[in-house]
Design goal:
Helix content is about 40%, strand content about 20%. It is of the alpha+beta class. The protein has 2 domains: about 1-50, no CATH class; about 50-115, no CATH class.
Length: about 120
C-alpha cells in the first residue's frame, strides 16, 4: 500500500531546507534529508494513497449517490467496485482532507508491541 506522510515543521527554514533536499536527488543525499526531518518535524498524519482506480463509466454529476466514503481508508469510492476515481485520487488535498488518518492506529500498534 502506498502512503502519504504529513510532516509538521515549527519553523519555515528547516521545512524549506527539507523540501529543497527532497526535490534535488543529486544533492546532499538521503541522510541529510532524513536528519532534517527527524530533527525538526513531527509526523501528524499518515494516509493511504490509492493505487487502483474505478474504471466504470459513471456520470458523477447525475449519479452522485453512486459514490460514498469507504470504511477502511475513508476514500470517496464508487459503491459498486469500492475504488476511488483516478480524478479524486489525483488531488492530494482531497485525499488528505477526506481520508482517515492512519497515524493513531500505527501508534497504537507500536504501543502494543513495546514491552511494559
Amino acid at each position: 500500500m502506498a502512503r502519504y506522510v504529513l510532516l509538521e515543521f515549527d519553523d519555515n527554514e528547516p521545512a524549506e531546507r527539507f523540501v529543497e533536499h527532497m526535490h534535488n536527488p543529486l544533492g546532499a543525499g538521503a541522510l541529510n534529508q532524513a536528519s532534517v526531518a527527524i530533527a525538526y518535524s513531527t509526523v501528524v498524519g499518515v494516509y493511504g494513497k490509492p493505487t487502483k482506480f474505478c474504471e466504470h463509466k459513471v456520470n458523477k454529476a447525475k449519479n452522485l449517490s453512486a459514490f460514498g466514503k469507504s470504511k477502511r481508508f475513508g476514500w470517496w469510492v464508487h459503491r459498486d467496485c469500492g475504488k476511488p476515481t483516478e480524478e479524486w485520487a489525483s488531488h492530494v488535498n482531497w485525499v488528505v482532507s477526506m481520508a482517515k488518518n492512519l497515524f493513531p492506529e500505527i501508534l497504537r500498534r507500536q504501543d502494543e508491541k513495546e514491552p511494559v
